[in-house]
Sequence to fold (465 residues):
Amino acid sequence: MQDRILSDNESMERQSAIEAVRKRIAGLELGYHIETYGCQMNEHDSEKLAGMLRECGYHKAESKDKADLILFNTCCVREHAEKRTFGNVGFIKELKQENPRLILGVCGCMMQQKEVAKKLFERFPFVDMVFGTHELKHFPQMLLKALDDKRVFQVTESDGEVIEDLPVERIEGFSTFVNIMYGCNNFCTYCIVPYVRGRERSRKPDDIIAEVKQVVSEGYKEVTLLGQNVNSYSSDGLDFHALLRRVCAEVPELRRLRFMTSHPKDLSDALIDAMAELDSLCKHIHLPVQAGSDRVLKAMNRKYTSEDYLTLVSKLRAKVPNVEITTDIIVGFPGETEEDFEATCALVKKVGYSNAYTFAYSPRGGTIAAKMEDQIPEDIKKRRLNKLNAVLAETIPSNNEKYIGFEGEILVEGVDHRGAPLLFGKLPNFKMVYVEGDERLIGTFVQVKVEGYRFNSLFGHIIER
Ligand code: SAH
Ligand code: SF4
Ligand code: F3S
Fold:
């Protein structure tokens, strides 16, 4: 993204730190490597860190082993993510012995939990920088200290702010992310995100549109607008559906516009109408249901019932042609009975998802659910997760039958070499289609006709170039 005019003291401090780092490392040809865990929010933060590193004079290293600076951008949404981070950071010790000037930093959501961050900082003395999610804008200043052999620990509690002047080094490709809001106010009782990402705050529509225009001019063909709950976007008197209409009207060159994630409690009829009417708005919605039992939904603080959810699904299907719905589901929430779990399986069968991410409930320190009685034993969670996945394995393919003979447009993303090479790309509704074709079609839109399917993917051929 184009650099913006520096507007405040912090930007000036950052700028002078960037200059100082550039001088410090001039002629050394230093490379960086960023390892990102978790969701698209983190992916996008990593693109901002990469943008600042580029400004500081670093280049992207060929691999982790060749890097002079390694950053771990961490996630803590489930326990598994935390364990992996501790393990992977531990492995870097050897690399530091081989390359004494290697700087190691750990940041992201997991480091925003001060106690966890302290534990990591103490356990691994070879970690040079630990910083939380609200420190991104201070990165060059922290890097300068680390280059001076000082260990940096910077985790501040904050509701968060909207920072507009960070550069972005985007992952190359045809599809990219644009943040429209940060943080979350929903406090679902199982979830750590509101604690580590601060309060909900929306970017100004003009800033969002300027960024969308910028990425389209750089050649990106698909933009995903990001937020923990995009349906509660609100800025300059604009709500989410109005923002979508403005983006489509003011950036007509953009071929595909997507968004995620939608909270069912805030999914309005106006948004469904916008999905039906706006041609470049993709006909796919990621609508996490989390559970099918009203009792569990209430305990999760989700603020809708399974009936409310099914009504939304019916409205979407009635108004938006070929719409596909994907979801997130948690099994084994505290107090979940067999009957509650069966309600989740029944809902999954009724909706007919095109894909679903399923998780065993993982207690997160500081959340309400972690303190609830009736925590479900691990073996029961595992059994329910397996059973739910088996239900999905049956329902997802049955949803594909209607695509036989279907014609539509895919954006070719790459070549799959697992068998005979096949191009792959998605329809506007996020269904993946595999076709035979020339690699030079990567990055272009092609018309395809579907002939068959396997699990959640479709197979077909190109009908027109
Ligand atoms: N903001 C998004 C998703 C955030 S986290 C939303 O509201 O939908 C992504 C998914 O991780 C959630 O949808 C949920 O299914 C899962 N998740 C969050 N906390 C979890 C926990 N403690 N244990 C298991 N899964 C969890
Ligand atoms: Fe977590 Fe709920 Fe916020 Fe999503 S809406 S980030 S699940 S608290
Ligand atoms: Fe995302 Fe994980 Fe943070 S899911 S917001 S990276 S806790």
In short: The pocket of iron/sulfur cluster (ligand 2) is lined by residues 184, 186-188, 191, 193-194, 228-229, 263 (CB under 6 Å).
